[in-house]
């Protein structure tokens, strides 16, 4: 998940909270107003001999409600204001340089802008649109950009496979880049194999899972790390032969682990070629 997606999730969380508060606010108002109306109707149906007492009773009922909803309204205002603050915190709002025409006064500057747009399109997997823009803006002769293009095409393909629960292209990529990954102490390959092992448990390929775990254990020993996680996977293998979803290792089935794996792969892959993970 990109940084932009994380920021949007923060804003969405604040919006959902504000909506929930507003719904609760109006729901309580309707209930309490109905109660006050019932009291008014009951009072009006009584003899008017003690109008002062009736008036006092109604005031005692309405005043606390008025204060309660006044305070609640302040809370609602705070919840809604928080959305704006989160947006200001997460997103760049200073566009003061955009109207400056000098930013786009030469073909070289336009070319850089086109490259940035194309890279963003490639990062999103919109290859056809990027190719059309490259064709129209004549960026084909830029060898550096073409190198990035090929890299981004491959990464998008691998990420799409991870979303479809196919880990083999990602594992193959790690094997081809193992030396570079080892130099940075990356655990990407281990985490891919770990998730592949969990897949074998889910499909009840227990014999294949045992072999896979033995290889994973040797890999862990050679790296001198992840020993505790391998031990947990051994425990998961035992419970999976009954029901992994009802075992202490059910957390291995959490859907968010796939999202984390996609993020980890993207981060490590971009690091290998010196590209920023976030789109320019």
From TrEMBL:
One of its GO terms (cellular component) is GID complex. It comes from the Eukaryota. PROSITE patterns: CTLH. GO terms for molecular function: ubiquitin-protein transferase activity. GO terms for biological process: proteasome-mediated ubiquitin-dependent protein catabolic process. Residues 151-208 form the CTLH domain. Pfam families: CTLH. This is CTLH domain-containing protein. It comes from Adineta ricciae (Rotifer). The lineage of its organism: Eukaryota, Metazoa, Spiralia, Gnathifera, Rotifera.
């Amino acid at each position: 998940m990109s940084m932009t997606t994380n920021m949007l999730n923060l804003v969405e969380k604040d919006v959902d909270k504000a909506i929930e508060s507003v719904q609760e606010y109006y729901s309580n108002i309707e209930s309490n107003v109905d109660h006050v109306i019932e009291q008014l109707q009951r009072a009006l149906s009584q003899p008017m001999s003690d109008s002062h007492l009736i008036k006092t009773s109604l005031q005692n009922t309405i005043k606390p409600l008025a204060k309660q909803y006044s305070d609640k309204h302040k809370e609602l205002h705070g919840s809604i204001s928080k959305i704006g603050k989160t947006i200001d915190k997460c997103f760049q709002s200073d566009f003061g340089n955009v109207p400056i025409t000098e930013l786009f006064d030469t073909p070289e500057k336009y070319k850089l802008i086109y490259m940035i747009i194309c890279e963003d399109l490639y990062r999103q997997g919109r290859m056809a649109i990027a190719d059309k823009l490259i064709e129209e803006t004549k960026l084909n002769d830029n060898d550096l950009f073409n190198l990035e293009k090929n890299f981004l095409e491959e990464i998008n393909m691998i990420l799409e496979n991870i979303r479809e629960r196919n880990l083999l292209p990602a594992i193959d990529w790690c094997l081809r880049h193992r030396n570079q990954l080892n130099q940075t102490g990356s655990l990407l390959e281990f985490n891919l194999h770990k998730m592949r092992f969990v897949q074998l448990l889910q499909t009840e390929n227990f014999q294949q899972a045992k072999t896979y775990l033995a290889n994973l254990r040797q890999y862990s020993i050679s790296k001198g790390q992840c020993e505790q996680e391998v031990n947990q996977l051994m425990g998961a293998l035992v419970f999976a032969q009954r029901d992994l979803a009802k075992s202490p290792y059910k957390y291995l089935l959490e859907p968010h682990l796939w999202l984390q794996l996609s993020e980890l792969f993207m981060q490590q892959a971009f690091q290998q070629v010196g590209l920023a993970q976030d789109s320019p």
